[in-house]
Amino acid sequence: MPRFIRELMEFVNLGDADLAAIRRTAPLVLRHEPALTAAVYEHLLEFPGTARFFLRADGTSDLERLERRKHSLGRWLRETADLALSHGFAYYLLSVALAHSHRDARQGGGIPPHFMVGAISVVQTALAGIFRTEIEDPHAALDAAMAWNKLLLVQLNVLLLGHLREA
Q: 2-161 adopts what CATH topology?
């Protein structure tokens, strides 16, 4: 798994300058973590295809599950901001992938891969908005957005591994 991540980092040109930009902007991202996680779940609740994962059997919102998921997303964001590219984090991401793709039918079943891709896009867009409004230098804001996009793309590839099925 760590080799897979290293190869992806090389493939998307996630280099030292990008890692430095991520480290520099991590405190900024973490200041927005509660609003960012809330916005992601608000977005997911707007669409029946994703909202169904957060409903009780009677069709009402499962607020406890939503809070747990927000907490989990916040943890992922904090780990990502800390630039956790360690051996352990690679397997943490894979466990997240498997948890999303192999969910119990009572919880709405597995989350289709296109929703994983879409959720990463929502996060990327939210981060770009944060950088645009919070970083005065437009070049630095763009550099930060590009660096985070590369990192999130690497992570998305790991998350999608949970959806691979043997032929």
A: Globin-like (1.10.490)
In the chain, where the domains are located: 2-161
Q: Which residues pair with 55 in a beta bridge?
A: 61
Least-confidence region, from 31-45, 59-73, 119-133 = 59-73
The pLDDT tens digits of the residues spanning 75-119 come to 888 888 877 666 677 777 777 777 766 655 555 667 778 888 898
Mean pLDDT for 30-56 is: 89
